[in-house]
User: What shape does this take?
Amino acid sequence: MATKKEAKASAKEQILQLFEQARLNEKNAQKHIKNAIRIALKNRIRLSKELKKTFCANCNTLFHHGKNSLLRVRKNYITIHCKTCQQNTRIAT
Ligand SMILES: [Zn+2]
Assistant: This one.
């Protein structure tokens, strides 16, 4: 049986792979991201800031800045506006 550490490491790998698939396959991007979030929750893994910036937390759409989202940079945080669900996400920098 895999130890907790090993399980976490393989889950992290899976998540990165799912994000890459989402990037390559825009049609199923939402599905892949949903799966990645599910794995992260199950294994209690926090998604890195870099990953959080790449998708909408509300509707799981992969961002293409300028195309389906607007990115604003403020002093202490950045704001991402999702054009699909009109949601603003704030991420501290
Ligand atoms: Zn959205």
Notes: Residues 56, 58-59, 61, 82, 84-85, 87 surround zinc ion (CB under 6 Å). The radius of gyration is 14 Å. The helical segments are 4-24, 29-42, 49-52. Residues 1-47 form one domain.
